[in-house]
Amino acid sequence: MPPQQNQVYFDSDLLRLFVQRGSSGSRDAEAIMVGLVENLRKSARLKGFAPFLDPVLKLRKIHSVEYVNDFDSDGAIHPLGHKYEQGFKMMVKRNCSSHRIRFTIAHEICHTMFYEMVPEVKFKPHEVDPKEERLCNIGAAALLVPARILKREVRGLPISFDSLEQLSKLFNVSLEVMLLRLRSTEIWHAELSVWRLMTSGKFLQDRLIGGRKVDWTWCESDLLRNAWATQRILRGRTYLACKGQDGGLKIRAVSYELKRRGDTVLALWSHPSTRRTRPAMPLFEGVHHSKTNNQNSL
Q: Where are the domains of the chain?
């Protein structure tokens, strides 16, 4: 018998029960997590940029946060008993940047939602659930970057590295977290990719933030090398390529900005067709489908 059109499938009992108990009628796990975090901000009376998360820690029954030097992950949450009411201890890796530590704390706070709502799973030995980790990332971004304030601050800003860095500093989060939050609130429809220079001299896509995981390659292979060599922001339009599951080649037109960061090159790109109207933004202004203009710097 074919499945019903509106039937929803879940990868784990944890996710199924979280959605079932998180909201009446809603089947969107991301929306449920964001709603829980927004309610948490209200309960903690966080009205601004939330530079300190102590009120939230107290509300979520996290009795202590221990910073350690030698830790095999960015952070972890440990229950102090077999019930949510008994509280938790948090472990955080010390030798990280300030914004990474803040995000880790926010991420671990979100894990307590699952301990409270699905105790029969969380208080027993269990494997790491990738969907839970992703939802905690979404919740952490919502906790640190509230949508209402973000929409106010982003008004009038073009889609560019300069804007992304300005917003990241304002909210004290990484570029990656800010990009994800801009996408989740549907303010931007851009993606951020990180390209690493290999010993072979080729660039390999290390991470793709905000889009579906695809191994893209640049049709103009010298663009990344130019950004690496000049250490300036390059912008223009070009094409990306990838192999589909059927083995065929798929091509995508993008407007981009490239900049070097340490031993990587960051690429901020957007598909022109994803915008209903053409905004004032450096990614779309004064560029053409030519290699010369593709190498223009800001």
A: 13-144, 161-297
Instruction: Return d(Cα 108, Cα 45) in angstroms, integer.
Output: 20
Q: How far apart are CA 112 and CA 233, in angstroms?
A: 41
pLDDT value at 296 more than 70:
no
The region, left, alpha or beta by phi > 0 then psi within -120 to 50, assigned to residue 192 is: beta
Q: Tell me: pLDDT of 282 over 90.
A: no
Residue 177 contacts residue 103 (beta carbons within 8 Å): yes
130-144 vs 29-43: helix axis angle to the nearest 10? Answer: 40
The count of residues in the chain is: 298
Look at residues 91, 57, 97 and name the one whose alpha carbon lies nearest to residue 73.
91
Fold entry, domain 13-144: Arc Repressor Mutant, subunit A (1.10.10)
CA dist 33 and 38 (Å) reads 9
Q: What is the per-residue pLDDT across 233-278, written as a single tens digit (0 to 9) for each? A: 999 999 999 988 788 899 999 999 999 999 999 999 997 654 444 4
